[in-house]
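Here we describe the complex-level prediction in full. Unlike the single-chain runs in Section 2.1, the two entities below were treated as one system.
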Amino acid sequence: MTVSAFDRRSLLAGLLATTAVGGAAHGGNSILKIGVISTLSGPGATWGLPIDGAARIAAQEINGRGGLKVGGERLQIEIVAYDDQYKAANAVTAVNRLIDYDGVRFILGPIASVSLSAIKPITESRKVFLFPNSWSPTVFQDARYVFRISSTTREFLPKAVEWLQQAKPGISRVATLAPNDETGWTSQKVQKEIYGKAGYTVVAAELFERQQTDFRALVTRILAEKPESIELDTAPPATAGLIVRQAREAGYNGGFTKFGGFDVAEIVRTAGAENAEGIVGILLADPTSESWSRLKEAYATYHKNEASDFVTLFYDAARILFAGIENAGTIDDPESIKASIEGLSPFPGSLGPLRWGGKENYGIDHQLYTPVFLTEVREGKGRVISRIETA
Amino acid sequence: MLVALGFTLIFGVMRIVNFAHGEFLMLGAYGLYVFMQMFGLPFGIALVLATAVTGVLGVAAEQLIFKRLVDSELGGMIASLALAISLQGTVAAVFGVDELAVERPVTGAFHVGPMTVPRDQLLAAGTALLLVWVVYQVLQRTSFGLAMRAVAQDRDVARLQGIKPRRIYAIAFGLSCALAGAAGALVAPLYTVEPYMGEEPLMKAFIVVVLGGLGSIPGALMAAGMLGLIDAVVSVLAGPTAATLALSCAVLLVLLARPAGLMGRA
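The structure predicted for the assembly as a whole is:
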């Protein structure tokens, strides 16, 4: 139960907001501030902190070569980050502060659909660019300056479910569970639709509160429907690990999939290696790649936790943004910058060429098609099964 | 139950609503993590040490902050809120915001017919019940417990009997925080450890204490049992969201019938 009559974490946000305000005051001539709105604390921090880390790595690289070349000027990049704690109200506070106080016009994040829905009307009216990784299908509704930076369930799930059918043909009854918020509602809707189309019977579709840690009642309800596979959807990885452990203790012997936000280390840590064995999920970057290793190393200078696959996504997103601004030759003309970013297709990303698309599904070509990696937990480690192209 | 017991103990004795109580639970969980995972101590010893350290920190908080705020309900609330935020921030800065896992002392489950009882939960629940029983016996059957109850009922009369309320405050606050720390150390292996883990138990404890009657220990125990039963049954039958609704309705109905709570003083 998450009763929050007096929301202390909102107050805490003021203390924990990792604002890197240093050097020149806001509005300084040679500094370009890039905003980050992300989940920097709580269960979503596994995904949220890498946005901040990735932005700082990309900024450091630009600053290291003298700054971002815009027109005839070199601009030093400064990252200003705020914690939305996966809450709309905090995201609104953050975006107002970023725009009105920090003078930011480009924002990396958020990841929470609820945060994006809340801030989008503000950023659109002020022509502020957003680079989120929210998986809501309504991300591009009434939006001209939103660029989604990774493939979503809609793009990769049909192929992942196809793999499941071929690899585990005995499964026909699937249960799915997701967080009880906009992210979970939208992803669960897509999951039910795609599993259903593939011929599976979705025997249970449950929602849980993000702060929940005891899932025994929920697991009891699900197991009563006798599923042969449980889809962990967009459950935060540490939470997913707890669900796996509690389901195993309740006697569940079937399989688990997590086709929505995967982190092998986190799941193994909370589920235990034995319980996590055989879980198949989707990673948004290749854990064996040289680029992820390099980014992990660089990330360690900014944050204590291990960098998740989001570090690769947002590192590329930051690079696309910087390239778009440089090519436009201005930071003051949103239309030129938008056209410039749209023109960066294909873009040489860490995972290979990245392309904008999505007009047929979303009405605008602002969806970045990134490959995903089907990964299985084996002896506590992630083993990539196959790379899925989503374009 | 342990958290609610400590929460109501502080209010009963000092008239302070300690919103940092959940953070003492969190400190207990981190204490267990440090003693078990970093120092390699066995669970039993780590549990005792984590509980003791949290109790000592509670006494320090009382001496440094709360002893000046006895009877100032608003001042106590604001100070405890500030302490909660500071503790969360400090722990986040030291340990990071990652959810940490603690090795479980026992694993597996008992299966009795259709019932499944995880061993680790049974251990935690049994230890918690034992602690509640011990504290209740101390409060009811010892001269120290009598002194604490006397201070809670009428401080001036207690003082006339030679009882030193200031000493009682420190001990009550420390005991209460130790109980929260024990609760944190007991749940740490069951779930995960993170800087904000105290919020939800605090909210539940707050509801339990209000429902039971602020300051009433038997009321808190009765309310904890009642709400736990409603939560478990409705969660299984209709899901966690319905359980939250059912809990809120139950609290509303009880408070409408008995505004001071099940066993509170009007």
